[in-house]
Amino acid sequence: MGKVKIKKQSIWIDMTPMSDVMVLLLTFFMLTSTFIKNEAVKVNTPGAVSEEKVPEGDVLTILVEKGGKVFVGMDKPADMRGMVEKFAQREGINLSGEQLAIAQAATNIGVPANKLKELLSLEENALNNYQKEMGIPVDSAKIETKDNELQKWVDAAKAWNKEKYQDKTDEEKKEGRMKIAIKADSDTPYSDVKNVMASLQRIKQNRYFLITSYKKVEE
After folding, report:
1. How far is CA 192 from CA 5, 29, 61, 114, 128, in A?
2. Distance of alpha carbon 38 from its chain centroid, rounded?
3. What is the pLDDT of residue 115?
4. How far apart are CA 149 and CA 87, in angstroms?
5. Rounded to the nearest 5°, which phi and psi values hold at 35?
6. E strands, 43-169, where?
7. pLDDT of residue 219
8. C-alpha closest to that of 152 among 136, 174, 133, 164
9. Which residue positions in the chain have pLDDT lower than 70?
10. Which among 60, 34, 43 has a CA at the least distance from the CA of 213?
């Protein structure tokens, strides 16, 4: 008796549910991920057990690398542009629209005032290489006179923040008040960090965050 041949049938699997799940996962990770900024210099922050988080908006970050060089940056591109524009106006530096657009795209600024125009004349991808060996001058001799350049950058950021919220309600102004965060390398000499803190204290900026890496308490 001959064998009965069973007709082979192709297997069909509906992939629609799996595609939906993949899209949802991708959307979740895109919305919750924090992208690493291309900062002017690499800073390895010291470890700490504090779980207090730095606010997410209206933050001026002062970056202090291990050689003591200082850089400033705002958390949002529009705020970065506003701060640079205020600083330039106060220093009598005439910046073009193209240069302000480069400032808006920058993560940090860390050059003496007389080099700012030259910095912002470069392509965006050349900014960090140009400024990484400079830094904003923090002359300890000028801390008491409120005349070192870091203090001027902080004042410019405050002026921009005030202007941005001038038409807002008192509650919105309070919520949007500029915050300061210091991000120093674990190998930065204490004297350099102390100069930064003394500069802030002299212009009555006595409250600021110190950015660290979270470290669990050892049992």
Report:
1. 85, 38, 16, 22, 21
2. 9
3. 94
4. 10
5. -85, 140
6. 47-48, 59-64, 70-74
7. 43
8. 136
9. 1-12, 29-52, 54-55, 214-219
10. 43
